[in-house]
Amino acid sequence: MTILYALEKLNDNDEWTRMHTLTIHTCQDATWNEWSFSTLKFALIFCLVSPQVSTKLHGSECQQLGRKRIHENAPYTYHGFVQKKGSDFEKPDLCIAFNSGASQASMHTWPATFQLLVERKIPSLFTSLNREEAELEAALLRAAGAILHPGLGPVKNPWGSINATSEPIKVYGHYAVNGWLAGGFR
């Protein structure tokens, strides 16, 4: 739902809803919940890009009622993936990073990806676990030149998990998977 919400906010009209194929790139390992659909109204291409991703599912395909869901796994940072693809890189309809940790756990891997997303005008969305992380990541995205969509961050994600968990290394506070939208931009 977060993906559909971002597509709705980042597009000026509803033409995207009539597209035959949507291409979604994730810049971080995503759980099946983020990209499983019971019925598809269009072909869907998912490319999971992360240095930790397994390449075992590369090229796997699922067909249901004449629709396809194609998965490609790429074990690179996103900017590394784009560089490796070279002239074969095709701009996705959305690039999304679920709980990227860009402001904390994996700060060193993101600046080049932020620059690439902004320079190539790739529609993008970053989610975060909590408000603090969302605000920090929004500042990093703005510093890279992103002009954030006001409805996409930093704000609470209407489609984020409602299962709040106590912060393990803090005296107070909670976090939730995809609980906040750090920033979305075109």
Automatic annotation (TrEMBL):
<protein>
    <recommendedName>
        <fullName>Mitochondrial splicing suppressor 51-like C-terminal domain-containing protein</fullName>
    </recommendedName>
</protein>
<feature type="domain" description="Mitochondrial splicing suppressor 51-like C-terminal">
    <location>
        <begin position="1"/>
        <end position="162"/>
    </location>
</feature>
<dbReference type="InterPro" id="IPR046824">
    <property type="entry name" value="Mss51-like_C"/>
</dbReference>
<dbReference type="Pfam" id="PF20179">
    <property type="entry name" value="MSS51_C"/>
</dbReference>
